[in-house]
Design a protein that fits this description.
single chain; 4-stranded mixed beta sheet
Length: 91
């Protein structure tokens, strides 16, 4: 899909939009979350203490997305699951 196709489909990348999806509020006071700029599907996973998380969200004027379903935000678990699927598909 070229850039022309994306523009024609009405999909635009807006680098001024920032998104946060909480993955887990840990018992040790840290919050695991996904942070994205421009497109919520392109994100990084971060972890901050709760007070720093709230400051981060305010500083970035984030759009808060629905919380992750269990395991949705766990990159290692997703990669492990995908690798296990590839192994079983190869057999």
């Amino acid at each position: 899909m070229g850039q022309e196709d994306i523009v024609q489909a009405g999909i635009t990348f807006d680098p001024t939009r920032r998104y946060v999806r909480v993955c887990e509020q840990r018992p040790d006071g840290f919050i695991e979350f996904e942070f994205a700029i421009g497109d919520p599907a392109l994100c990084v996973e971060l972890m901050l203490p709760e007070s720093a998380f709230h400051e981060f969200c305010l500083a970035n004027a984030v759009i808060v997305l629905d919380p992750a379903t269990p395991g949705q935000g766990d990159w290692a678990a997703r990669m492990n699951s995908a690798s296990q699927q590839q192994i079983s598909d190869a057999g």
